């Protein structure tokens, strides 16, 4: 996949040799990253190796040679651009890899130690900022005019990219009079996520139209780097870039005492400065900032990979100074990376409980967004085609927040095999039944129903899960075995399992078999919402199951309720109601329920809610025209109190129209549909009659 270094497991490795090996691999990756814009390993991997080298050098200073990757920042500039010498070097920042709060604590502790502060002494004031994920830029203004824009390069020599940077609207070309004679503004050129998406959509369209030499970009940073290094400013101008200022290089006249005031000045001069800049007093407020931004991260319109803490006072910054070209007064505190490179081992098609076929990329395990990811959904046929993921591909996986992992894109240039493009199968990969994609739908579905082993397995797992009837210990593997062995076909089969049949399954000791039998026994006493949810009716989640039970009380009442009664339940709309009706109208589903009851699955039944008992429950009224005594709103309240639904327009589902004088089109419509028409007195009589006991 990509080249990494295995740590030697000998405790007494020759440090010198390890340092040399780290030099080699870091130099190589730095070249791919900084010079040719094609990261060969994920940032996290690079950071880890870099940090290891740093700590080895700290422990053994004699090993720190001038050619060490820690002694310079980044790689060599590209030959095509004129070289710029940074009079004030563009520094790097030390990275705190600890993604927990303690990263802020250890930074603050280090600063306090350097400043020889005691425990009782005042807290240190910091500025906390976002760590933008773009590329560093130095903008040189002379007498208020932008004369040069340069990349960081190796920190000392960068590339002159003035012609491209001039195309960025957010970067002022001329500053107000108040600007110092010489001012180098340091900041980050980046691409917003929405701009990135639009750019990639445009690129895809060009590629689809047969344009040669066009490609899509793997992430906003890569797209921004590509745009900055465009040799043709005309093309750079079409790549939407943004900028945030976060510091300065050479300045002829320093008139500020703190970093915060410097940022304020930059803002006043017309530079974009992030609104998320905060003053933070001591470690506590740094931690709070780290947590706040961690929550905000996904909602920001651009990528960040961490936050940066800086000592606010310039005097203290000077006192703290530098170590190996990193200022002691600043640190980058990262968040877990949300994107990683990995390879696609296979593309499988999974069959869900409702028969939906989902293409899933099986990945070489990779740690991303805080968890190890081995699967990434490709969603459906259209998505899989759009991304064109193939077996063997190197891909970028993203896991942001709690969102399920996704393949962002393929590194096409790394495609080495001639694996064919993925196509959706037209038969179910599990049961061979036809798989169909209905007109207007994105998904293929297996038509096998419970004949399909995959759907059967999913149905059983769904029924047995903790939130449903809960059969302890009945997991993925066991259900697989049971279904494959043919000893369980339907839900009731679970309760007919004998010890012998179970013990005969592979790797099933008698004791575990007994445990399963006991767990099944225990699961029989359940609750109606759990049972109903466990049946796996499409669109019926836990909340809906609870609402149905609350309303109807008993299972039979739910099974027999007509559509209009079902829609009377809070949160049950026509789609859910139809799904319930379809399910209970099928004889084999009723049979399953009967058998489960016969096997001893039981629950306490309740009473229907007052709303369900009301005489007008399930009836829909429409009120129109001017009523002789009551306001329309008043009658509506009375009807609703009796359990009726009052709708705004007449349809086939309307049971009664209450019409006053000057009734218009609604009255015509009701006549057309043969819907009973009442006047106010009629409606009131109906209310009296029904609340006195009878139904309608
Ligand atoms: S300050 C003396 N502030 O992070 C410190 N850098 O290694 C100089 N970066 O690629 C950098 N956001 O472009 C600083 N708010 C921020 C930053 C930031 C992103 C980047 C910078 C460079 C890397 C530092």
Ions and ligands: 2-(butylsulfanyl)adenosine
**Major β-sheet profile:** 7 strands, antiparallel
- Provide a count of the helices: 26
Dominant shape:
globular
Separation of the first and last Cα atoms: 72 Å
Percent of residues in helices = 25-40%
Low-pLDDT segments, ≥5 res? 1-6, 8-12, 73-77
The fraction of residues in strands falls at 15-25%
Structural class by sheet pairing and helices: alpha+beta
SSE map:
Elements lengths: L14 H21 L7 H17 L23 E3 L8 E3 L5 H13 L10 E8 L2 E8 L2 E7 L5 E3 L2 H4 L16 E9 L2 H16 L11 H9 L4 H5 L4 E10 L7 H10 L9 E4 H15 L7 E8 L2 H7 L1 E2 L2 E2 L2 E5 L4 E13 L4 E13 L2 E7 L3 H7 L6 E5 L7 E5 L24 E3 L6 E3 L6 H12 L11 H10 L5 H5 L3 H5 L6 H14 L1 E2 L1 H7 L7 H11 L2 H6 L2 H4 L7 H11 L2 H12 L3 E2 L6 H4 L6 E5 L7 H10 L3 E3 L8 E4 L5 H8 L4 E2 L1 H12 L5
Parallel strand pairs: 2-13, 21-22, 23-24, 23-25, 25-26
Antiparallel strand pairs: 1-6, 3-9, 3-10, 4-5, 4-7, 7-8, 10-13, 11-12, 14-15, 14-17, 15-16, 15-20, 17-18, 19-20
2-(butylsulfanyl)adenosine binds next to β3 and β8.
What labels describe this entry?
26 strands, alpha+beta, disordered N terminus, 696 residues, single chain, seven-stranded antiparallel sheet, binds 2-(butylsulfanyl)adenosine
Provide an overview of this structure.
This protein is an alpha+beta fold. Helix content is 37%, strand content 20%. The strands form seven sheets. Strands 14, 15, 16, 17, 18, 19 and 20 form a seven-stranded antiparallel beta sheet that branches. The protein has a five-stranded mixed beta sheet with strand order 2-13-10-3-9. It has a four-stranded antiparallel beta sheet with strand order 5-4-7-8. Helix 25 links the parallel strand 25 (656-659) and strand 26. Helix 1 packs antiparallel against helix 2 (43-59). The termini are far apart.
């Amino acid at each position: 996949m990509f080249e990494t270094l295995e740590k030697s497991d000998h405790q007494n490795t020759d440090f010198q040799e390890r340092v040399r090996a780290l030099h080699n691999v870091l130099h190589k990756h730095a070249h791919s990253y900084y010079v040719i814009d094609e990261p060969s390993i994920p940032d996290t991997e690079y950071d880890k190796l870099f940090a290891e080298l740093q700590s080895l050098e700290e422990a053994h200073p004699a090993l720190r040679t001038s050619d060490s990757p820690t002694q310079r920042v980044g790689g060599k500039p590209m030959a095509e651009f004129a070289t710029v010498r940074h009079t004030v070097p563009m520094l790097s920042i030390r990275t705190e890899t600890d993604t927990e709060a303690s990263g802020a604590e250890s930074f603050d502790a280090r600063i306090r130690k350097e400043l020889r502060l005691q425990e009782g002494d005042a807290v240190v004031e910091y500025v906390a900022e976002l760590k933008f994920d773009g590329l560093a830029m130095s903008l040189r203004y002379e007498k208020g005019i932008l004369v040069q824009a340069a990349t960081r390069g190796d920190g000392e020599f960068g590339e002159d990219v003035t012609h491209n940077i001039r195309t960025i609207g957010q970067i002022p070309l001329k500053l107000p009079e108040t600007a110092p004679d010489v001012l180098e503004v340091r900041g980050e050129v980046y691409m917003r996520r929405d701009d990135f998406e639009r750019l990639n959509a445009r690129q895809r369209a060009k590629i689809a139209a047969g344009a040669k030499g066009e490609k899509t970009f793997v992430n906003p940073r890569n797209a921004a780097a590509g745009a900055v290094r465009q040799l043709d400013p005309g093309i750079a101008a079409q790549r939407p870039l943004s900028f945030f200022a976060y510091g300065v290089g050479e300045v002829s006249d320093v008139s500020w005492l703190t970093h915060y005031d410097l940022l304020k000045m930059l803002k006043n001069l017309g530079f974009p400065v992030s609104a998320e800049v905060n003053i933070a007093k001591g470690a506590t407020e740094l931690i709070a900032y780290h947590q706040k931004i961690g929550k905000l991260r996904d909602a920001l319109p651009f990528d960040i990979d961490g936050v940066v803490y800086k000592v606010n006072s310039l005097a203290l910054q000077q006192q703290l100074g530098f170590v190996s070209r990193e200022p002691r007064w600043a640190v980058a505190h990262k968040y877990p990376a949300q994107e990683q490179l990995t390879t696609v081992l296979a593309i499988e098609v999974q069959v869900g409980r409702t028969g939906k076929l989902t293409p899933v990329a099986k990945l070489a395990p990779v740690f991303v967004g805080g968890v190890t990811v081995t699967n990434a959904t490709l969603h459906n046929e259209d998505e899989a085609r759009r991304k064109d993921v193939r077996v063997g591909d190197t891909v970028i996986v993203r896991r942001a927040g709690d969102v399920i992992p996704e393949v962002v894109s393929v590194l096409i240039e790394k495609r080495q095999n001639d694996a064919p493009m993925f196509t959706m199968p037209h038969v179910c990969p599990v049961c061979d039944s036809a798989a169909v994609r209905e007109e207007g739908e994105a998904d293929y579905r297996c038509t096998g129903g419970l004949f399909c082993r995959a759907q059967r397995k999913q149905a059983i797992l769904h029924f047995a899960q903790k939130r449903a009837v809960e059969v302890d210990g009945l997991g993925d593997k066991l259900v697989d075995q049971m279904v494959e062995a043919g000893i369980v076909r339907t839900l009731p089969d679970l309760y007919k399992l004998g010890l012998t049949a179970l013990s005969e399954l592979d790797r099933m000791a008698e004791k575990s078999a007994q445990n399963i039998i006991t767990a099944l026994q225990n699961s029989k006493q359940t609750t109606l919402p759990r049972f109903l949810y466990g049946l796996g009716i499409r669109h019926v989640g836990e909340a809906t199951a609870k609402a149905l039970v609350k309303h109807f009380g008993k299972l039979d009442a739910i099974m027999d309720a007509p559509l209009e009664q079902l829609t009377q339940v809070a949160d049950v709309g026509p789609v859910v109601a139809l799904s319930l009706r379809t399910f209970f109208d099928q004889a084999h589903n009723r049979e399953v329920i009967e058998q489960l009851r016969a096997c001893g699955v039981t629950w306490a039944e309740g009473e229907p809610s007052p709303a369900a008992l009301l005489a007008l429950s399930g009836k829909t009224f429409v009120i129109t025209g001017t009523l002789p005594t009551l306001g329309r709103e008043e009658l509506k309240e009375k009807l609703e109190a009796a359990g009726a639904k009052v709708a705004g327009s007449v349809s086939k589902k309307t049971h009664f129209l209450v019409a006053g004088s000057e009734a218009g089109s609604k009255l015509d419509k009701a006549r057309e549909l043969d819907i009973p028409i009442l006047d106010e007195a009629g409606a009131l009589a109906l209310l009296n009659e029904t609340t006195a006991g009878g139904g309608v």
